[in-house]
Amino acid sequence: MKNFDFQIRISTVNGSGSSTANEILLKCFVFSGIHAVGKNIFPSNIAGLPTWYLIRVTSQKYEGLKSQADLLISLCRETLEEDLKSLNGDCWVAKESPETPSFLNLDIKNQVKKLSVPVSLRKPLANMIYVGAVAKHFGLELSTCSHVIKKRFQGSKEIARLNLEAFELGYHEASEKFKLKADEFTSAPLLIDGNQASALGLLEAQCEFAFWYPITPSSSLVENFEKHVSDLKLSATIYQAEDEISAVGMTLGASWAGSRAMTATSGPGLSLMAETVGLAYFAEIPLVIFDIQRLGPSTGLPTRTSQGDLSFAHSLSHGDTLHPVLLPSNPEEAFQMAQFAFEISEDLRTAVFVLSDLDLGMNLKISHKEDFQNSKNKASKKNKLPALQPGTPLGGFMTRGSGHDPQGNYSESPQVYKEKVMGLKKKIMSYNLPSCIFKGDSKSSKLFIYYGSTKQIISELQDLIPDNVYFMEIKALPLSQKDINQLKLFTDVYCVEQNRDGQMAQILQSQVQVKITSLLQFDGWPIQADRVFKLYNEALL
Amino acid sequence: MTYTKEDYSAQTSTLCTGCGHDSIINHLKSALLDTQTPPHQIVKISGIGCSSKTPAYFAKGAYGFNTIHGRMAPIASGVSLASPELKIIGLSGDGDTASIGLGGFIHTLRRDTPMLYIVANNGVYGLTKGQFSATTDVGVPTKNGFKTQTADPIDLCELALNLNCRFVARSFSGHKKQLTEILKKALAHDGLAFIDIISPCVAFANHDPSTKSYNYVKEAQTYMNELDFISEETKTSTELKLKNISIDISDSTVGDVINHSQSLKKQGYIPMGFFALKESSTKKQIKKTKNYIQKEAFSGLLNKYEVETT
Question: Mind giving me the DSSP string for B45-107?
Fold first, then answer.
């Protein structure tokens, strides 16, 4: 089948082993040469609540989800009614019941009894039955899938065998309905998420310290870094502080002392870090902070994605502040920007944010090996100015967050203060941050602005929108004057983002006289092109 | 290279005349001069408050960092990990450490960050003009008499002792000889050396019945233990009112020391001297080796994420 677009919605209960099974299913597609995107929608819970996994396979290689599923695998009775609302196709239920329309009955519960396994293993293995059934349904080769399963459980031959057996049960029970055309890989593909990519970036940047406090969804970034450091016997120190105030404080102290240090957090942690960020800004000390955004405000929805911290991070702390914010839109950029953040913060001696989100950070995406090969940008980790290195003989200076003159002496002089803060503003604006990427029809009157993980829907959106559109991908704030001037040329401007108040639009409108129509999806689920297209049509009315 | 008095001086203090903190700094300068600590290897770090202004008043060739209120402790922890060869001197106050900074203080004690941690304790918020701190004693009113402290105070020495700090002492800004000796010993300590120094605030907490006024402290202070460097000349009846020495900290438990401290306090005294003075057998410092990732190792990592094309 040459042209295809299928979305599979798998509804299970968390803690049942379905997450492992779902990832295996995703890999079966990818290893078969079929472009697949997988999204894990998990609850803020350890076991027992509903969880969903969405896999979309498209011949157009789309990277986002759509709002309707074509196939539903339902192992969670509780959410079946809701799941059926977004289904436009077959439903496979684990156990048939009068309420469910007549669908393929997987009968997983009875099938799994065919396997001679202890009761404790029945639940996780049961999931592999539907994995096998879906694989067969889409015409995947058994040899490819069995390779994926063996690789996943390479630690234990017995576990691999049991999983393969369960998989084959489902595989032989189902029948092939579609044979999706596989693609040749042009270069070595990777399946990696943003947090894993950032951790690799920290290694390449020779980051010496990571001070952190666990918070969903940033924990895996530092934990990945820690594992690499330990496996490779590197000398970086990863330390779990008692709270985010201490984590960012220790990062600041280490940076001040001339080492490369970072911290990673999410919204609630960022709120706690605000005061220290102001100190970094005013006292001119390097500071690198990763914010993997989740739905706020307050505790919010810890396991749902968002782009809601943009304005907050950009001007974090009281008083007049403005920080460089890097906006990676895929794992390669998460890798590159992790390194670039250190360079910027050391060159400018200021706080720099890398703003990722749960969707980018925690969902696997197909990337390419060559995007992770870095030799030219090996930035030195040393203090750019030796005179600022504590311990240097004949040095000595005072760093302070209170008003000061250029020598660091305490000062309450109005002129000195004004010169200082104007200088800070000029400093940030003077730097060459990553520019916006423009593409599409430049003669078009319509401009679509987006940033971060929203990039995943753009190619599909371009296909959906009948008009010619020009796209502007923002990679960092503040925008350069050159990019602002480009923006000024358009009158029909849209900004697609994942927050309620259209924060990027607000920031841009404060710099440019332009009316921006916001196209917003902010319910915590990964952004979907067809929904944004619907919003666009509604806006046209 | 011999360092002189000049090397440990800096700008003139802007604190009130008679402020205890100025005496502390003078004694610190003497201790640094005696130990010949190289100024460029000193990190003088503070929070916010009158006591936190003091880094500007000594060792102009040192590296100073006046941070934010209550956060000197974690920031110093970060500095220490990054540059363990430097001598960190942390200056804080009772508001900065016992109120807002209490969490950071406790965890920094757990980490045993190698540094000299001084709390200049005047039982009041001086810079904001006279509010209570967490070390203001029960029954002590503000200077204007408007309010009286009702909550129990925090005893930072007992707290530090509870957290197994190996060097805990209390002193008084007015005690040149004793404090200088304690400071010298503290500078030689390999972990966190904590000193609670009663340091009267002439502007807001020197009134009767403040328990941190010059008069009160001189009358009420007593010694936890025999300090071999308290010479006979300081033991005048007008300066000190010594009780019989009662505890030998070298073989006492934390509980014994705290009980002793509390019984002295019950009798109306301010316990001074050492609460703990222990060497360590385990070095907690991290050895800094330059071991960066090699290209081959990085490629090996990337292979983990590779999709094997069959």
Answer: EE-SSSGGGGGGGB-TTSEEEE--TT-HHHHHHHHHHH-TTSEEEEEEEHIIIIITTHHHHHH
